[in-house]
Amino acid sequence: MIEESFTRLRDYCEAESYKGWDPYDGLNSAIFQATPFKHWDIARLVLIQLCKRSPVNLRPLLLVPKQHNAKGVGLFLNGYCNLYRLAEQGDTRFGSLDELRSKIDEVAGLLITLQSPGYSGACWGYNFDWQARRLFLFPAHTPTVVATTFCASALFEAYEITGNNLYLSTALSSADFVLKDLHRSEHKGGFMLSYSPLPGNDTVYNASLLGAKLLSYCYHYIGNEEFKAVARQIVNAACEGQAKDGSWVYGLLPVQSWIDSFHTGYNLDAISNYTRLCGDNAYKVHLDKGLKFYLENFFLPDGTPKYYHNKTYPIDIHCPGQLWVTLSQMDCWQGNAALCESVAQWTVTNMQSPKGYFYYQLKKGVSSKIPYMRWSNAFMFNALSYYLLEQHGQ
User: How far apart are CA 378 and CA 371, in angstroms?
Assistant: First the structure.
C-alpha cells in the first residue's frame, strides 16, 4: 500500500515538474499585483489568509502561477537521495542507480539556480511575498534559516552520492549565511537565531535549531570549531527552554505558546543531528524526554496524527510525515515500527487524493484538498522515502 501510494505521488510530482501552489502564495496573484491594494498591509494579509483558508482553490481565478519553491525542491532532492540508498541495497523498485543518479543531478542543479543572491553564503527563501500577522512583510526570495537548512542538507546528501564538489561547496558556504547574516538574541545560557536577516523574528525554537543543524553538518565536513561552538549555544538555549515534561512551545512570544507535533519533530531532528555530527552527547536527557512527549501526545491509537498535544484538529500533512523523518534521524525506528505503519496507513487512506497528491489539512468541517507542492507533496515525498528506506532495513 505504501509503495503504491509513493509511486502515485512521485508520478504526480514529476508530471508537474515539481512546480505548484503554496498555502501562502496568494500575493503572487497577477490580478492583485495590478491593483493599488498590493501596497496595503491589511489587504495583503487578507488575501493570503483567504487563499490559505479557503477550501476552494482561488488561485486559478486570481492568476497565481505554479512555481518552483526552493524548500520543496530541497525536499525532493533529499527524497531521491534516499531512493538511491534503497537501490544501493538492492531495492530498485523506484529506479536503477544510474536513473536515480541522473535524477539527483537534475534536481540538485535546479536547487542551485534557486538561491537568493546578495548574501554572505548560499541561502534560499520562498517564491512569494509573505505578509505576517504582525504586519511584517517578507519580500519574495528573502532567505530563511528554515529553507536554507533543508536545501543545504539535501545538497550534502547529494554530494555523498555523487561526489560533485559543487554541491559540497555550495552547502558549506551556507554556514556564512547563518553566521554573518542572521541575528542572535541571548536566551538561557545561549542564544536564538533569527528566522531571516530581517529584524524582529528571533523567537522561534525550531528555526533557531535548524540553524544549529546546518552548522553541525558543516562542522562534520570541515571541522571548523566555530561551527560546533555556535551550534552548541543554540542547542543549549533550546534545551534550557524545554519544559519539564519534554515539550517545547513554538516560540517565546505569548502568541507563540502553542505546542504542536511537527515543530516538536523538527526540534528533535535538529538536536539529534547536532549530537551525531558534532559528537556531543550532553543533551541526551533532553532528547529522551522530548521523544517520549512526542510519541505519547501526538498520535492516537488508530494512527491518527494530532496537530496539538491537547487537540487533534486541524490534522496537517506535516504531522504524520515528520514522524518518519524524526524517528529515522534519531535512529529509533526499531521499537516504533508499528506506530509508523499505523500512521502511514491512516494517512494514505485519509489524506491522499486518487490523483496521487496529498491534502494540506483535514478539519472537522470542510477540509482543504488543494495540491500544494511544497507543503504537502514535497514534504510527503521526502517523508515516505524515509519510510521506505527504514522498512527495507527491517
Answer: 11
